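Hi P.,

Sorry for the delay on this. The queue was packed all week, but I finally got your sequence through. Input first:
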Amino acid sequence: MRGERRLRRLVLPDGTVWGWTVRHRHRDGGPCQEVLTLYLDGTPVRIVFPGTGGAYGHYGLVSDRRGNAVNLHEPGVVRAFVDAVRRRGASGGEVDGWALLPGVVVSLAAAATPEAPPGCPPGP
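Then the structure:
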């Protein structure tokens, strides 16, 4: 378990290096939370998934009520959250993970969808 808490690195194509960790936490008797913390130049952005917004399957797996689910331990998922945070201009503090999740799922699906080879007719 100790190795899962280490600061991992994500290097973007432009050379920008983000650090990231995933944690499960409890705050003042409130609901459980999964937290993906992204670090850029030492400044943390915490993407928080409170237990009131969805469900957890295992440590790091979050799923909202619409069925959108991601594993916060996967680098591709982290990259999608980095892109979402950059689009929002977040530079520190906490961000509601449930608000970002649908866009992240769409981004991951688009990245996984292969393009048609040149010369193929468009789909229906």
